[in-house]
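Contributing new records

If you add data, match the layout below exactly. Sequence lines come first and carry their own label; structure lines follow with theirs. Keep one chain per record. Anything else will be rejected by the validation script.
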Amino acid sequence: MHGFTKNTWFLESPISSGRPFRPNSGYRSPELNKEIGSSKKSQHCLAEAVDIEIPGISNYDLSVWIRDNLEFDQIILECYRPGEPDSGWVHVSLKDS
């Protein structure tokens, strides 16, 4: 399954319950990836990764839900500060199989 298809899980996820979501980053061209200083091996360039937030749900809780409910390749709670539920974002990747 192509990365874009697999990474639309958050559109129908029970945790989002119809809330708007904020994909901060999805697919990135290699040029953009280089320009922002991201890893040369970034899964964003393969459409296998997305960085998201869902308003009204702490990013920590979102990362726990993903951990407990989805098959994933990598999950990172990036730039999160305990006690600040809206800080940071959740990076999740689902490798193409």
